[in-house]
Amino acid sequence: MFAGGLALVLGALGFLGVFAYLAARFQYPDVLDGNVADVLPALLATGDAGRAAWAFYAVLPLIWLPAAVGAFEALRGRAAGWMRLALLFGVVAAVSMMLGLMRWPSIHWELARAWASAGASERVVLGTVFDGLNRYLGNFIGEFLGELCVSMYFILSAVGLSRRPDAPRFLGWWGFATGVLGLVGLWRNVTPAVDFVAEVNNYLLPLWMLGFGGWLILLARRERPGNPEQAVAPWMEEHHG
User: Fold this and answer.
1) Closest Cα partner for 68 from 97, 46, 40, 48?
2) What are the residue ranges spanned by the domains of the chain?
3) Are 112 and 22 in contact (CB under 8 A)?
4) Which residues are within 8 A (CB) of 142 and not within 5 positions of it... i.e. 6 or more apart?
5) Which residues make Cβ contacts (< 8 Å) with residue 233, sequence separation at least 6?
6) pLDDT in tens, 147-164
7) Which residues contact 86 (CB under 8 A, 6 or more apart)?
8) What pTM was estimated for this model as a whole?
9) What is the C-alpha to C-alpha distance for residues 208 and 210, in angstroms, rounded to an integer?
10) Which of 5, 16, 108, 133 ranks highest by number of CB atoms within 10 Å?
């Protein structure tokens, strides 16, 4: 539980930090709507530091692995089936989001290098490859599938929180609302009608990660062997069911 909570807290801070860096150096995420002739040179211009930032960003989704295990261990007592499903969603979220982001420091980086010396006909091919990878790996694997799985992890964790007597009720409702907004916002790649929902969720998501992660850390400390409070937990669950 402690590792899962720490992963959520550090993951939220890491996402915010690298996102801010890429926004300043690469105009991310607005640059994603730009023309390939502007995006690839801008990517290459970020240099080694920019490529390292993308590599760091690409592995950050792996935090969903310990986060999913931590949530399972904390909430399986009254919601074992739901939390097993949340664990699986966390695994798929980690892999899909990582695959989507890894295109930037790898395939896109090589496309950017090739673009610099390519002729007009070659750039047509490079642009087509770039657009196709963005649509498949970026929009549908990384964003659509990844965010769907993260949202389901939030909702299922909220169910687990609602069934644990000593869990803060507001944390469960907060996670449920964030997950539902995420399920709506992921359709932004299909219709701009949900853009505002996606923007709101971008702020709620890291905040809930901090809140849920902090609760998991406190719970792990409270239930560690030898802590007098640890012996109280079974009594509480038995008499508050």
Assistant:
1) 97
2) 2-222
3) no
4) 96, 97, 99, 100, 101
5) 166, 222, 223
6) 999 999 999 999 999 999
7) 68, 71, 72, 152, 153, 156, 157, 160
8) 0.89
9) 5
10) 5
